[in-house]
Amino acid sequence: MTIREASAQWQGTLKQGSGRLLLGSGVFEGAYSFPSRFENGPGTNPEELIAAAHAGCFSMALTAILGAEGHAVENIHTIAKVHLGATTAGPTITRIELETEADVAGISAEDFERLAQKSQGRLPRLAGAGRRRNHHAQGEPHSSMKRKEKTNDPGIDHRHRLGQALRRDGGNHAALQ
User: Fold this and answer.
1) What pLDDT digit, counting tens, does each position of 78-99 carry?
2) Where is the region Disordered (predicted)?
3) How far apart (Å, rounded) are the C-alpha atoms in residues 165 and 5?
């Protein structure tokens, strides 16, 4: 089993203090603070790192599934938006939205959507955490171009919009947002 590590150091009070987040690999170190986490202050925050991890995992899972189906992936770009809200339990991740665009030659919009949905089940899960925060998206179409899926966790949903079926060079450009 692979074990990854990161660390955080904090100095001072909650609202006036600040800290540093450091990835174990050393490729990223960033400042964080109350304003960077709960307001729009400069610096990073734990939720931004969760978003980066989620986007990276989804892009890799989708690449693997597309490749296994014989589709050559030119490029995949995923943006994850982590929503942090206040609940009675305290600060809570209430939703994670994924927006993905991919250049994949010769794939239909329907096949791309099907394989993107299949990718949801390939993402890592939290074992022994009481409930899963991610994936196993299920839902019904709102229209022919939009889907809103809800996970088994009532607080998190994934929104996907499919569009731009063809590029000018004749290849398919499917966008899952």
Assistant:
1) 999 999 999 999 999 999 999 9
2) 117-177
3) 40
